[in-house]
Specification:
By secondary structure, the chain is α/β, with parallel strands linked by helices. It has a single domain (about 20-145, about 190-250), classed as Undecaprenyl pyrophosphate synthetase (3-Layer(aba) Sandwich), CATH 3.40.1180.10. The protein contains eleven helices and six strands. The protein binds 3-methylbut-3-enyl trihydrogen diphosphate (2 copies) and magnesium ion. One 3-methylbut-3-enyl trihydrogen diphosphate (IPE) binds near residues 23 and 83.
């Protein structure tokens, strides 16, 4: 086992493939320090870099970060524009690091609501990193799961209308291919910082069988240590996907992975 896993006491065989993080609590972090809310968002970007690097070292396949929800457009214009400026800055400043670290960048969410310069920065980075084979880094921006599902339904209906797809052929896997997260593994683990225990319209389809973790620290205080502790907790959970504990224990190590959907369950049966 390499030094990194030893140092953090992590078992690489028992890590999630795809982690989603609801990065909440920037505003409260700042308010508690009598700082403007945007100071919390700035600090939050530092954590994004640190946690992304950690995810790369863990060898995770995908990390989805909830940066701005569809509902966040309701915030005061000043805060929305500060968040968009930070994002612009992030896309420019982190480009090289993303490419050097073999990270594949992807934006998920309602692209139609984003300004054209942000969209072109993000699209360029998606293209430039498209052949990278390391961590899939998804930034959920102007993202809402219900909206994403509706966009997928529209795509499916268009395919049916054009004769590309028969309604009877629509199964879970075909549907998934029409979501913004197409091609990524299912979400195994969702973390929400800052104490709130809600999902706030994040990856409802993809995280249908995820393990949820609620961390009391606000996002600007979320450390590698906390992430490692939650990952160890994740590794100790028994993921049954509907089976009995006896059935799960009889299966060889790792065989319980990638079996979330009924279609995949039957395909690994007896293996
Ligand atoms: C999360 O922090 C960042 C975004 C939603 C953009 P918040 O800004 O929601 O911080 P709190 O929840 O108000 O503390
Ligand atoms: C969820 O946080 C969205 C992000 C972290 C980007 P919010 O702070 O917007 O969620 P609610 O409003 O508390 O549910
Ligand atoms: Mg919040």
């Amino acid at each position: 086992m390499n030094e990194f896993f030893q140092r953090w006491n992590l078992d690489p065989q028992k890590l999630p493939r795809h982690v989603g993080i609801i990065m909440d609590g920037n505003g409260r972090w700042a308010t508690a320090r009598r700082l403007p809310r945007v100071a919390g968002h700035r600090k939050g970007v530092e954590r994004v870099n640190e946690i992304t690097e950690f995810a790369v070292q863990c060898g995770l396949q995908a990390l989805t970060l909830y940066a701005f929800s569809d509902e966040n457009w309701r915030r005061p214009e000043e805060e929305v524009s500060a968040l968009m400026s930070l994002l612009r800055w992030y896309l420019k400043a982190e480009r090289n690091k993303i490419l050097e670290n073999n990270i594949r960048f992807r934006l998920i969410g309602d692209r139609g609501k984003l300004s054209s310069d942000i969209l072109s920065l993000a699209t360029k980075l998606e293209e430039e990193s498209s052949s990278n084979s390391g961590l899939n880094l998804c930034v959920a921006l102007s993202y809402g799961s219900r909206g994403e599902i509706l966009r997928a339904v529209r795509r499916v209906l268009e395919k049916v209308e054009s004769g590309e797809l028969y309604p009877a052929d629509l199964d879970e896997q075909t549907f998934e291919e029409n979501l913004d997260t197409a091609g990524l593994p299912e979400v195994d683990m969702v973390i929400r910082t800052s104490g709130e225990r809600r999902v706030s319209n994040f990856l409802l389809w993809q995280a249908a069988y995820a393990e949820y973790f609620f961390e009391s620290a606000p996002w600007p205080d979320f450390t590698e240590e906390m992430f490692a502790t939650l990952l160890r907790d994740y590794s100790s959970r028994e993921r049954r996907f509907g089976r009995t504990p006896e059935q799960v224990q009889q299966r060889p190590e790792g065989d319980n992975k990638r079996t979330n959907s009924p279609a995949r369950l039957s395909s690994v049966k007896g293996s």
